[in-house]
């Protein structure tokens, strides 16, 4: 659902992208949807990042208005809401992947160097796996699968 047209700072594609999802909370929400398999407000709130509920609600609304995510009634309880990336949102997979790789390469992080090296070596396979899971509605977290070897990126790349 597109939001009201807003005056842009410039016509620069990077500037426009940053207007849509460039704050840290929006990027972390996108990461959690894409990589950690989160779907609910509660999961985002309890992610360990320390986001305030009012900020979380605001960012979810902005991402929805920007067409990056959508709200769906939960199958098990129609009063509850699940969030899901849209096609526009899932197209951010390479961006999030490169942020993960860049940060692990240049900063101290809590993610295994071996996991990041595997992701960096298999970028296309990671992107394909995220898209495959999104298309199937599979919310299994991506990183634990890579860490335990449950996701064979070499095999996916070859297929």
Structure description:
With 159 residues, the chain is mostly helical. Strands 1-2 form a two-stranded antiparallel ribbon. Helix 6 crosses helix 7. The C terminus is likely disordered.
Query: DSSP helix count?
Result: 10
Shape: globular
Under CATH, the homologous superfamily of the largest domain reads Winged helix-like DNA-binding domain superfamily/Winged helix DNA-binding domain
**Extended strand count:** 2
Whole-number mean pLDDT: 84
CATH architecture of the largest domain: Orthogonal Bundle
- The Rg value, from CA coordinates, equals 16 Å
Count of domains: 2
Low-pLDDT stretches: 145-159
Q: In which range does the helix fraction lie? A: 55-70%
Structural class: mainly alpha
Major sheet summary line: 2 strands, antiparallel
């Amino acid at each position: 659902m597109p939001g009201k047209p807003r005056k842009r700072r410039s016509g620069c594609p990077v500037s426009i992208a940053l207007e849509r999802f460039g704050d840290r909370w929006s990027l972390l929400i996108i990461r959690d949807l894409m990589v950690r398999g989160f779907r609910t407000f509660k999961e985002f709130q309890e992610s360990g990042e320390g986001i305030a509920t009012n900020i979380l609600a605001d960012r979810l609304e902005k991402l929805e208005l920007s067409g990056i995510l959508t709200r769906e009634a939960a199958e098990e309880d129609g009063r509850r809401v699940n969030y899901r990336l849209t096609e526009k949102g899932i197209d951010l997979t390479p961006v999030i992947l490169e942020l993960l790789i860049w940060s692990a390469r240049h900063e101290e992080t809590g993610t295994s160097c071996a996991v990041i090296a595997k992701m960096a070596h298999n970028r296309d396979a990671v992107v394909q796996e995220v898209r495959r899971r999104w298309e199937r509605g599979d919310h299994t977290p991506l990183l634990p699968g890579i860490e335990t070897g449950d996701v064979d990126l070499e095999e996916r790349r070859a297929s």
